[in-house]
Amino acid sequence: MHARRSPMTPLVLLTLPAFALPVGGLAESPLAWWQSTPALLALAIVLASLVLARWTPRTAFTEALLLAPGLFAGAALPLVLLDGGVALDQAAGLWMFLAGILALLWHVMERLTECSGFFRHLLVPALFGVMLIYLWEVGVRGFQVPSVLLPPPSSIAGALTTQTANLEDDFFQTVIKAVLRGYLWGCGAGFAVAILADRVPFLARGLLPFGNLVSAIPVVGIAPIMVMWFGFDWPSKAAVVVVMTFFPMLVNTLAGLAASEAIQLDLMRSYAAGYWRTLLMLRLPNAMPFLFNGLKINSTLALIGAIVAEFFGTPVVGMGFRISTEVARMNLSIVWATIVVAGITGSLMYGGLSWLERTVTAWHPSYRRR
Amino acid sequence: MGSSSTLPVAEAIATTPAENRPIVDIRTLSLIFKAADKPVTALDGIDLRINSGDFVSLIGPSGCGKTTLLRVIADLEQPTSGDITVNGLTPEAARLKRAYGYVFQAPALYPWRTVERNVTLPLEIIGLDKTERQRRSAQQLALVGLAGFEKKFPWQLSGGMQQRVSIARALAFEPDLLLMDEPFGALDEITRDHLNSQLSRLWRTTGKTCVFVTHSISEAVFLSTRIVVMSPRPGRILDVIDCDLPRERSLEMRESQRFQDIAARVRHGLAEGHSYDE
Ligand SMILES: Nc1ncnc2c1ncn2[C@@H]1O[C@H](COP(=O)(O)OP(=O)(O)O)[C@@H](O)[C@H]1O
Ligand SMILES: [Mg+2]
C-alpha cells in the first residue's frame, strides 16, 4: 500500500489570494507583497524550489531535499519582517502564506515517513518539534502576546544562555543533591523493605495501609514538616523525595515478587533451590517489569517533589527557589528556562529508565518481537 | 545408586533387569484437600510400590488424583495420612538430594531465558561448569528434535516445542527417577509417537525409573512395565496391570495381539471405574 499523498496543486492555488492581501503593516499602513524585498525574495525561493521539485525526477528524499530551501525561506519570512519592524497582527496575506508553508511541511514530513529508518524515526519527530517551537515563536511575536503570559522561545533560549551559571547551580542543588540522593534512598529502601516484608507477612500487612495514608498526603503537607526536621538545605528536599518514592517502590516490588506462577516456583522447589537462589533466578526476573514501573513513576515524583519542596524554604539556589522568586519578579523567561531544564531532566530520567527496561525485560510480552 | 545414568549407553548393561529395589514405596496413603466449601479426598488408601527400572503409567479420568500422586512423590504436596518413601528416604529428604526430575503438565519455562539457558537452569543450580552444561543441553535438545533452537526464546516456539524443551530440561538433569505429568498431552500424533520411541529407548538404555501420567491407553501400554488404573472421587487405585511386552519396543508392536489384549484390559478397568463411580 502506498501512503496517501496530499496533492500539491490545489494547495498552491488556495494560497494564491494571499498575495492580494497585505504581508504586514509598517507605520500603521498596510504593506503589500511587491513593496517588501524580503517578501519577494522568499516568494521567489519558494516558487523556485516548488518548480524544481515538481519537474525533476525524484525520490521521496530528493523531493524533500529540493523543497527544503523553500520551506526555510518561507518560514524565515515572518521573522525577518518582525526584525525589520513590520507589524504582523493585521498581515492576513502573510498568515495565509504561512499556512501554505505549513501544508508544504506536512507534505514533506509525509514523504520522509516513507523513507528508511533514520528519516522516519529521527528527522520527522525533530521537524515536528521544530515546527511547534517555530509556531510558538511566530505566534507570540506576531500577535504581541505579553511575555508575562508566554515568552517566545527565543527569549527563553536567551535566558538559558545568559543565566547558564545560575541554572547550573540550581540543577546541581536540586537534581544532583536532592533528587538523585532522595530517589536512590527512597527506591532502595522501598525495595529492601519489600524483600523483608515478603518474608515477614505481618510487615506487609502493617505497612501497606500506612503506605496508602502517606501517598494520600500532598507534597505541600510533607515539605514544611521536612524543612522543620532537616533544615533549609538539600537534606529536607531529599527527605521529601524519600517519603514520596518509598511506598510506590515498596508496593511495586511486593506486587512483582508475587508475580511468579505456582508452577515456576514448584520447578525451583523440585531442584531443591533455596530461598535466595529462587529469589535471584526466578522471582526478581519476574518482578522486573514491576520494579521498572515503580522506578519510572518515582523518577517523575522525585523531580516534582524536590521542586515543590523548595517553595517552602531553601538557600538562595535551586530550581524551585528560582521559579518562585523569578515569578515574583516577573522574569518569566528565567522561569521558563528553569522549566525547560526540569522538563529535559525528567524526560532524560524517564527515557533512560524506559530504555533500560526495554533492554532488561525484552522477554516481556509488551516488548517481544518475533 | 545413581550410577546408571553415567554408564555408557550400552545395550548389554541396560537390558540386564535392574535389581528389584523399591524406589517409591507408598502405603495406605491418603490426601484430603481442605477446600473452602468441602474437603476433597484427592487420594484414598493408595498402595503402590515402584521398583528400580520400572516404567509405571498412571491412567484414569480427570480429577482422579494422578497429578496429586505425582506431586506427593515429588514432595510438592503433603499427604494427610499414610507412609511414603522415595529412595528409602522421606520425599523431602529425597527432593533435597535431587532424587528426581519432574516434567510438569505445562512447560513452565522462564521467558527471560533462551531455550538453552532454560535447559541448563537445573544444571546451574547443581553447579555444573559451563561446558558440561552446554554439552548436556545440546545432547537433550537434539534428542527432542530441537537442535538449532538453542538461542530462541520460549515465546518464539510453539506450545508443543515448549513442552519438548521442558522434557529436555528434565532429561539434562539426568535424574534416576523421572516423574512426568502428561508430558506429551499437547503434542501432535506424529511428534508424540516419535517422543514415545525416544523415551522408551532412553528408559531401556539408561535403566531409569519412570512414573508417567497419561490419558492415552496406547501410550501407556507402549511405554510401561506396569499400568496403574485410577478412579476419581475419592482417588483410588482400581487395578495394576502388568505390561509384559519385551523391553525393547517398536511402534509396530502396537498392532500385535499381545498389545491389543493389554490395551483391552486397561480400557476395561477404566470403564469399571466409571460404573463404580456413577
Ligand atoms: N490445590 C488443590 N486444592 C484443592 N483441590 C485440589 C487441589 N489440587 C487438586 N485438587 C482436587 O483434587 C482432585 C485430584 O486432582 P488432580 O490430581 O489434579 O487430578 P488429575 O491429575 O488426575 O486430573 C481433583 O478433584 C481436584 O479438583
Ligand atoms: Mg493432572
Automatic annotation (TrEMBL), chain A:
Keyword field contains Protein transport: no
GO cellular component: plasma membrane
CDD domains: TM_PBP2
Compartments where located: Cell membrane
Record carries keyword tRNA-binding: no
A Gene Ontology BP annotation from the UniProt entry: transmembrane transport
TM annotation in the entry: 37-53, 60-81, 87-106, 118-136, 178-197, 209-232, 238-263, 301-321, 333-353
Key words of the record: Cell membrane, Membrane, Transmembrane, Transmembrane helix, Transport
ABC transmembrane type-1 domain segment(s): 190-360
Pfam families named among the record's database cross-references: BPD_transp_1
Domain of life: Bacteria
Topology relative to the membrane: Multi-pass membrane protein
Protein's UniProt name: ABC transporter permease
Species this protein is from: Telmatospirillum siberiense
